[in-house]
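User: Batch of two.

Assistant: Item 1 of 2:
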Amino acid sequence: MPSGRPLDAGRVGFRYTMRLSNRYGFVRPTYRQLCTIALYDSVVRSDIDHARAIPCWKPTRFITRLRTCLSGQLFLGGIFDYAEKKDRLEEVTRELEDPNVWNDPDYAQKLGKERASLETIVATIDDLEQGLGDSRDLLELAEMEEDEGTVDEVRQELDSMQAALEKLEFRRMFSGDMDPNNAYLDIQSGSGGTEAQDWANILLRMYLRWAESHGFKADITEISAGEVAGIKSATVHIQGDYAFGWLRTETGVHRLVRKSPFDSGGRRHTSFASVFLSPEIDDSFEVDINPSDLRVDTYRSSGAGGQHVNTTDSAVRITHEPTGIVVACQGQRSQHANRDFAMKQLKARLWEHEMQKRNAAKQEAEDSKADIGWGSQIRSYVLDDQRIKDLRTGVQSSNCDKVLDGDIDQFIVASLKQGL
């Protein structure tokens, strides 16, 4: 490159690079040396956008660094447990190839879901490793031929591989035994009367829209209308891969601050609603339920049910007296179907209850459900100031309408990354 070509100070940082050159012992650095120093500093800081703006940008240097990093992550200690997952994939595949496995359709279906998940992880890691090797070889050839077009093409491939790695890294956070399962989402209005009941209804809509945007199926299995507006409580059955893993950190109290539309004076009100997540438990998971511990009540359904709505006692409420856990279902078309669904939900709630007993932090969150108020909130929605803040992660958003329309991934991702 001609030494007389002016250095782009805006992108390379001329004065900053001169200071770096003095640090590295260059008294009167040449243009090439300045560019090399700037590139070295950028790559060390992983500032790739800055590095790409430098005329002597050598992508192979970053690929080598990235390859070393990836190899350490994927195979040297294996934060993705690559070898273990590959062995498990082979084991599951052998089981599914056995015709006798289909004598138990539920177990076979469970194995099929596990194989699909393992195939995604193993194939992604294999593709990343192969892609990095190909990119390195291609760039070495492109540099020899001074082919800028090929260099740009490989840069795009690197961006794609980085996105794939980030997606894989995010999926690694779904490490809980129940994370792949469907979920039950319970919403309960708290302090604030009609305002709190309206707030519970807003949260219900938010989660329904979120589920829709992720391609999950969401069915309202029980709902209790508010006295004036909104809802007192609701239960939603959310079905989809890793539904519980996605939503489990949403458990807690959500606080709303706004000028209430139900206050003729237009005063500012604070109200609360709680959200509680539990995983759907399949029949292969044993949860001991003593029938004598259950109180079963039936009542007339106010939801879907065709000709039986409000004419027969088809809705079912089950109370587990030792724990005080109450579940209800009115969304099915017969009392028998509602009872079966309520028992599945009770099984999930009892499992979650047991897990919380073994974990002090979760137990504290469970105890806080009895007092939905100031001390147990996880997220604050201050609509007057256009500010929504997660009190655990510090993540904030000023686009309240977008968040309440279901765009809550930024809060979920941050909480999962922090291991909440």
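Item 2 of 2:
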Amino acid sequence: MKNLYFSDSDNEQVSSMKNRGQLASSSSYLLDLNVEASTVYLSRPLPSTYSMQSSDSNDLSCDAEITKVRTSEQREFVLEAGWHHASALREENGEKLAYNLLVEAYQQHEQSLLKQLLWASSLSLSWLDIIISLCHEIINVIRPDKNHDAEDLDIRHYIKFKKLSGGLRNDTKLISGIVCSKNVAHKGMSTEIDNPKILLLQCSIVYEYLRHVAARIVALQPNIVLVYRNVSRLAQDLLRQHGITLVYNVKQTILDQLARCTEADLVMAVDAHIGRPRLGTCKKFYLKSFDIDKGGAKTLLSFDMTHLGGTVLLRGALKNELARLEKVASFFLFATYNW
């Protein structure tokens, strides 16, 4: 059995072994090599008496070494410069060839998986190319950000599927932002605003002193107000007179998604003690109507924004078929994102 010492510096190794029998470097390791048993053990050496009696300056230098350890974000960034970018791979050591072979094998597996899912759900294989292209677009556009939601990095929680019967299958598309089946409170309110300021209220506006409540909302200078509960007719008219677009009876899930994606505060009550909440924003707010089957129409509100959320419009079939397609697309997206 042989005991070997390794450190970052050869000079440091020689001097340490001669003077103290132990290594001073914090990055030294003890290699226990047993040739007969064919075993190798790697461990840090036990602290010597000398290291226990080291000066405060040495402790500070050791602490400095610890603080230089790369964060997980830095390590992920280094990885992205390799296998995630084929152009950076080298051909002389076989990296690029191995990458291409792996990608080709995965693409075959990807198609086989989706075919199996479509067949099991009694769906046509004509959806194959549409779903593959759609999921790849989602992966390239939508980027879950742990700075906004550190405990939830499942890509499926950032994507919402909206089923609109009728239309063509090629009308299926990704909208980068939040979409909901709502309309503005009054036809005289704006239905298209660039870079709006958005106020989110998790309360109703139906009690007395409505003029004072409306005045506080107006003082915040929002362009759009979304309310979880009902809003009285008087409050609606007061907000419309100040050019504010109002949407009420909004689902809690939609408010939560908008709060995360627009970085707006969710205000619980509008009273005299309210501070100045943070208003959210997006690239564009707009309203659009879609023709559905049986001659009907569906109105959707869209908040076009960044990579923090997206909505998939599923079209080209009846609603029961689109419901099965949603389950297939959601599972396939999860598998594709984590390959």
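Residues 1-26, 48-81 have pLDDT under 50 and may be disordered.
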